[in-house]
Design goal:
The protein has one helix and five strands. By secondary structure, it is α/β, with parallel strands linked by helices. It has a single domain, classed as CNF1/YfiH-like putative cysteine hydrolases, CATH 3.60.140.10. The strands form two sheets. The chain has a three-stranded parallel β-sheet with strand order 3-1-5, with helices on one face. It has a two-stranded parallel ribbon with strand order 2-4.
Length: 105
C-alpha cells in the first residue's frame, strides 16, 4: 500500500540528537508532556519541520484509545490535539507526529 504513495508519503523516526533541550531532556526532546521548557520543545519541533521540509506539524496527546483525528484545510498552524491516538491527512505539507512510547523524554 505504501508503494502507491511513494512520491508523497515520507516516514521518519527521530533520535535525541540535534536539538536545543538541556539535561535531562537533551537534546531533541519533542514532547510537551514532560518538564522540559516549552520554548525548547517548540524550537526542537521547528528544527524537525525544517529538516523534513514540512510547513505544519500536527501531533497528538495520546490516551491509549481508538480515536483518529482527521485533518482538514483548517489546520494551518502547528497544533497538538488531545485524546487521539492516530492522525490522518491527505493535505500535502502537513507532518503527522505520534510518540512511540509515553516515556519518550
Amino acid at each position: 500500500m505504501i508503494e502507491k504513495y511513494n512520491k508523497t508519503l515520507r516516514l521518519f523516526s527521530t533520535d535525541r540528537n540535534g536539538g536545543v533541550s538541556h539535561p535531562p531532556y537533551q537534546s531533541l526532546n519533542l514532547s510537551y508532556g514532560v518538564n522540559d521548557i516549552a520554548q525548547a520543545v517548540t524550537e526542537n519541533r521547528k528544527l524537525l519541520k525544517t529538516r523534513l521540509k514540512i510547513q505544519t506539524l500536527l501531533s497528538a496527546k495520546q490516551v491509549h484509545g481508538d480515536s483518529i483525528f482527521i485533518t482538514d484545510q483548517n489546520v494551518i498552524k502547528d497544533i497538538e490535539v488531545e485524546n487521539f491516538d492516530a492522525l490522518m491527512t491527505d493535505i500535502p505539507g502537513i507532518g503527522l507526529m505520534i510518540q512511540q512510547a509515553d516515556c519518550q523524554a
